[in-house]
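Journal club prep — side note

Before the paper discussion, L.F. wants everyone to see what a predicted structure for a comparable chain looks like in token form. Sequence:
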Amino acid sequence: MIEKILLIVFILLLINYIIFLLKIFSGLKNLKSCDLDFMPEDFVTVIIPFRNESENILRSMNSIEAQNYPKEKFEALFVNDFSQDDSLQKILDYKKSDNIKILSVPSNYSVNAHKKRAIRFGIQNAKGKIIVTTDADCNHNTDWLKSLLACMKDDVGFVSGAVEFYSNESFFSKLQKIEFAGLVITGAGLIGSDKPIICNAANIAYRKSAFDKVNGFNDQMNLSSGDDELLMQKIWKETNYKIKFCTNKKAKVETDPNRTVKQFYQQRKRWASKGLFYADKLLIVKLILIYLFYVGLLLQLVSGIFLSVYFIYSFIISFGLKSIIEFLVLKRGSNILFDNLLLKPFLFAEIIHLPYIIIAGISGAAGNFVWKDRTVKR
């Protein structure tokens, strides 16, 4: 009797997860390219928060200065979040364009919010009606800003763009690239299906009026993260603005993968920590069910050893269907968003995906993680 109940539960969790994947797959098909000849009339502020980015800060500055976008129509604010290295001094000493400014967050300003407080401080000092955020460790195509903002029509309040990891010859970097691409593709597909859930603050744009209408980060300043997807979800739910994903490959930004497994774990733990704070409680339930699907895969293996061989069969079917559909989603998404995404490490990535999702989910819900050389609660 227990075996039958467990099998039914596992089957229901599998069906729910397949429906989720098919929603992403169909959403990718719904994505529309933006009119690249369009340029919003509104002035734009690009905000780049940084902390301990000595290796990247000048590259980031050059990347922003090289943008093929009228300098009289945008400003860039580099916001220092208490850097402990020489990144602030480097950028202060650098000969900059007139539309680039350097700010430092006051010491008593929203102490626990970290990166979010840097962005909020930047917004408070911004002249632009459109806010664009990116990270100081990112590299941008010269048409990045122009391509991203081509989607910012009058009825659009939030635009998400693709982010891609560089890949070197190491197998670890290739694994990260394909895994991270899966997250970006998931976010794009969900936006295409009008169910925006995830995005990445390294490449987003939104209207300041939409930010103000949903009270910005006011109800989230106790959280260190969530400056991207939590804001996107609020704009989608509380305003009439549309949410768009920019499919133009020139709007993609690139960044370095994590150098160590420990850094990778801390990053994914930080990302997982936001899920329980989504305003949409039904969405939280759906994400929990997806998490339980992964837990169920592990339980099927254990049950196959100690209870019945039928659980081994159910694991093979569940894992097989998961892998096939995820591969199809990844292939469709990579054709739309990326130029040279190699799918060779896919099977190995699928295998390590199972324990990593389970561990990251539990540890993310627990809270503390290390980020930019400091221990952060949430």
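L.F.'s comment for the group: The chain has two domains: 1-30+165-195+258-378, 34-161+199-256. Keep this in mind when we get to the figures.
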